[in-house]
Amino acid sequence: xTDADGDPPAGGAAERPPPPxxxxxxxxxxxxxxxxxxxxxxxxxxxxxxxxGYATVVAGDALLLDGQGRGLLTFEDGVxxxxxxxxxxxxxxxxxxDLTRGPWRVELSACDPAGLxxxxxxxxxxxxxGVPAERVAAAPxxxxxxxxxxxxxxxxxxxxxxxxxxxxxxxxxxIEQVRAEARAEAERRAREWGLEKQFVDHH
Amino acid sequence: xxxxxxxxxxxxxxxxxxxxxxxGMALAEEHDVTVVDADTGMANLLFHAGLGDADxxxxxxxxxxxxxxxxxxxxxxxxxxxxxxxxxAFEAADPDRLxxxxxxxxxxxxxLLLDSPATLGSKSAVLPVVLxxxxxxxxEPTIPALSDGLKVGEYATAYGTDVxxxxxxxxRGDAGRVVEKAGRYFDGPTLGQVPSSEAARAARRxxxxxxxxxxxSEAARAxxxxxxxxxPKPGAPERVADRFRSAVIPDPP
Lengths: 203, 253
Description:
The structure holds two protein chains of two kinds.
Chain A: E1 29-36, H1 39-49, E2 53-59, E3 71-76, E4 79-85, E5 90-91, H2 93-97, E6 104-110, H3 117-120, H4 131-136, H5 140-149, H6 163-170, H7 172-192, H8 196-201
Antiparallel strand pairs in A: 1-6, 2-3, 2-6, 3-4, 4-5
Chain B: E1 3-8, H1 16-27, E2 33-37, H2 45-48, H3 58-62, E3 73-75, E4 78-81, H4 87-92, H5 96-106, E5 111-115, H6 123-131, E6 134-139, H7 143-158, E7 162-171, H8 176-183, E8 190-195, H9 198-206, H10 210-213, H11 218-230, H12 237-246
Parallel strand pairs in B: 1-5, 1-6, 2-4, 2-5, 6-7, 7-8
Antiparallel strand pairs in B: 3-4
């Protein structure tokens, strides 16, 4: 991320190719820096504050794949607009799949809406308003509140908005990590809980 | 003849209890079905089954204050064994008796459905998955639900419990690509996609299983189709009974 240069966005959203170096966001005013255990906390905070600005998200120590780079999520009036991840260089719903494992250190910053215009003009980075809450935080009520806050033009009709979930499922390394951790945890807990017999009997 | 099937999700809010009762009612058309609220710390099933005023529940049985027959109710073509809502009763209950209860029920039914806790965080919570013959994994098309569902699948496999299949619940629109991609990571088949449904919420408010409250709803049809793919394979009751009896005593959470 680099500071915005103040130039107005060029061309229509659909015509603008994603800049290779990711969103250019202004410094903004830091409102909050904290570790959140679930992503819904971040989204609800931004919605309740009616934040116009952005969140930078750094995965916690427990993460391996997400240990590098920041995720970025911008907001207008508390509603998510753009998602991007510096490690993967992906934007849009795919970037949401890169933000899914917590805990997260989150910094919320407010800024002038003009400073977000460049990023918001890149169609490939935009996310449907309710998707971060619905698909990443699994918080349908929060997603519904977010959709109600969103401008009319941003809400599709029956679009299932499953791009983030598909991106998660396409990341075979990530899935294998989840499964391997679960297997290791199951084995460790079998010992803790005295269930070795059941565990070993079937292998 | 009995097959014990755990209905599990790893996370709350996926509609696991709705699913358990829907599968139970659908299977009850051909089989003798008993549904047990194995989520003893978060009683839920009694409200879905219109048993909110039940005098005797599984908690009483676990407190050794009642025989299991007294906590078994004939409802909607199934036998239903609900838990009570008293946390004090839950904490005082003897969890070791759960195995005896299930072993007893196993002698008198074809399909034993265990509505399992929405967590893998304690021995009590994991025990239904450990002890069941098969597990149905209930998913929503969200990243946390899939991630937790994958964990349930790994736990089940680690304990030698087959994955009977995955069932996508609360689906809005067409989740076909997500279902297809998720299917690659689970051992069992995809049992179905159940659409997000106001009927399911209304059924819960009415204290009725979805298949009783709105049998012709799209969601009810999807659950019946899923049950048809479950293909129960009742085995010898002694096998399930022995597994439950021989399991270690679970700690209260």
